[in-house]
Every structure is written in C-alpha cells, then in structure tokens.
Amino acid sequence: MVDEFLNDMGRREQSNRTDINRMGESTRAVHGGANRTKAHHSLTEPIVQTATFTFRNTQDVIDYMEATIYGEGTEREEYGRYGNPTVNAVERKLAALDGGEDAVLFSSGMAAVTTTLLAILPAGAHIIMTDDCYRRTRQFAQTFLKRFGIETTVVPMGDYEAMEAAIIPKTTRVLISESPTNPYLRVADLEQFAAIGKKHKVLTLIDSTFATPINQRPLDWGVDLVTHSATKYLGGHNDLLAGVVVGRADRVKALRDARGILGAIIDPHAASLLDRGLKTLGVRVGQHNANAMAVAQFLEHHPAIDRVWYPGLPSHPDYGVASMQMNGYGGVVTFAVKGDLKVTSDFIDRLRIPYIAPSLGGVESLIEQPALISYYDKTTEEREALGMRDNLVRFAVGIEDTDDLLDDLEQALSGVPAYKDHLRGLSTLWEARFRN
User: Which pTM value belongs to this model?
Assistant: First the structure.
C-alpha cells in the first residue's frame, strides 16, 4: 500500500510539473520543475548539504545501480560530485524556463562552456565561433582546445555565408555564438544559425546569458543547446557563481556524465541561492529591460555621447532580427563617450549609482570601461584592432528607479568637455540671436 501511495504521489508530481511548464514565464520561474510536496513539508527547496549519500541496504544499492545503468531514472544520488537533490530541483526549473527537456548545472558559466566542449569534441575536430563571443570562450578554444588538435575558425558576427563556408565536412562539430554579444550586443539570427547547423549536421550552441529565457529562448528557434552564466541575471544578486546548459535529454545526460568526471558541479548552497533568484527573474528582467531602453534612448540624443549600441534602438545593426525574435532587449547598454581614455574614466568616476565592476545582471547597476578592466594589458592600438575603443563604456543597468539613473547620467555627463563645448555653442547662438 505504501509503495502504491508513493507511486501515485510521484505521478501527480510529474503531472503537476508538466502543467506548470506550459504556463507563463513568471509562473515557471516560481514553480517550474518543483515538486509540490517537499521534505519536512518545506515550502522552499531544502538545501541538502551533504557530500555523500547512504543506502538502506544492499538491495537499495542494487536498485539504484540498475536504474542508473539501464536509464530508468532515479530520484536519489550516490555522491555529491554526480548530483544533489537541491541542484536537481534547480535544473528542472531551468529546463522549464528555457523550454528544454533537461538542464545541467555547473559551478560557473565558463565551467558550463568548457565541460560541454570537452565532452562533445573528439581530437582533431573543428569548431566555428563568431568574433564577438566572450573573450574567455575564444581563449579556451584557441589555446586549450588547440592542444588536442581541435582547430577553431572565427567568423564575423552576422556573416552566415562565411559561417557556412567555414564548415569542414565530417570535421566541424559545433557552431558557437552569443546572442546578444558582449559588448556590442549583436543579435544572432537564431533561425538561420540553427538551419546551417541542421543542414550540415553540426551541433549549434548559443550563449544566451545577456538575454535570459525571459527575453529569448534559442531552443524554440531550433538551436541544439543553450547556455547561460547563471552568475548574471538568473541569480540576479551578484552573490553566486553558476552556469547551466539546457537542451535535449540525451545531450544533457552526456554533459552530466562529463561533469561527474571533470568535477565542476555547483554546491547545494549556491544552487539554493540560484533557486531563490530565479523566482523573481520575470519581474527583475522586466525592470532591467525598461531601464536599459530609457538609458539607451537618453544617451543616443546626448551631445556628450558619440554612439550607443542597444538592440532595442533602430540605429542598432540587428534591430530588425532582435525585434522579431526577442521579447525584450536586455539590461546592458554600450556606448562611446566623446573623448579619450581619461575623459571617459572621469565621467565614470562622477557617477553616484553604478558600481565599477566587471559583471552584469544583478539588481545593482554596474559600469565598466573595457579598455581598463578587460584589456588593460593591451596598447590603445591593440585595443582598437580588437574593436575595444578607449572611450567605450558598458553599462549593466540594474533595477533602480529609472529617473534616478537618468539624473545620475546627466550630472556625470555635464562634466564631459564635449558637452561643455555644446552648451557654450548654444549660449553663443542665443546671444547672437538676442543681439539681432
């Protein structure tokens, strides 16, 4: 009778998860993948803080091994490096959010990317990535993977003819891009990207960190795998490191097996923080989107600003595709100040709200000058060759009040020489008109 009751409860839990996964984004962010009934009648997902798991008896061991080997699935774990109930619960939620069959969590975004590539690439393989991919991802591919005879071709973002031309039959295994990218927020045409992969039987992977599942779901457009640095918007509070890969169940299982070998699993406490952050994802991303749009529109018309990159502006090169496939344009605005390295640094130092920091996606606004944080070891000429101008600023807009952010930008920009020159010019013009 007890076994029948437990089996019935399990069926109900699975049915409940399936129903929730068909609901809206914020509902899935709060309830997606969760069991309605939790240990100790807890409302929130309990933190199972243990490195190893016990068995009741030898038959329990045999049952577990049989289920593991023959793929029947099991709700229990054996050892902390292979999985944890708290981690598993968050994985189910992330899969529900991105519309995938399964998800696997890692200790950082880079661990998610590196484990994935190491797991799916044989020696001598070839991969293609766009030139605006995260710098550390490109560095891993072009240095570490090269040691295994794996070659990397970098193609211009948005040049799908170049991407398709670079494919080497039976050798190219993965196409990689971010969308939006860092820092110029280029948006990949996901349908075209996925179609190239399917045509040539090449796996496609999109890093969707800047978009989040709220603004964009690459799997819906035919992409094979989507990854996020969960450190950013998914966690949302700048207090954890995590990464995730979402996709078809068999592909994710292979990555979970690789994680058990390579060891980059997230710990249960960090997973619990991520679970808590995910519950407010829809609300937070909505405010990020609204604030960033307001900031982008304000900056685009400001005399102290040379140029703004934001996919929600018609001036952005990918505005058309972004409008078609995104529900919102994200919380990052990149812009160039009229001035040199020092003028730009002085502007940043006058800001009162954002912190100077090299991340994004948290509730606090963060700002950085890529020339100093990410490319300090390069000369101005070397940075220019990489597309990183000395006057470039990346503003990761938080969820503060919009008017406060705009007022702060206005007061900081008032000290930029180009703005002062603009005001002097207006003053001279008005004086001339008054005299006439």
Answer: 0.90
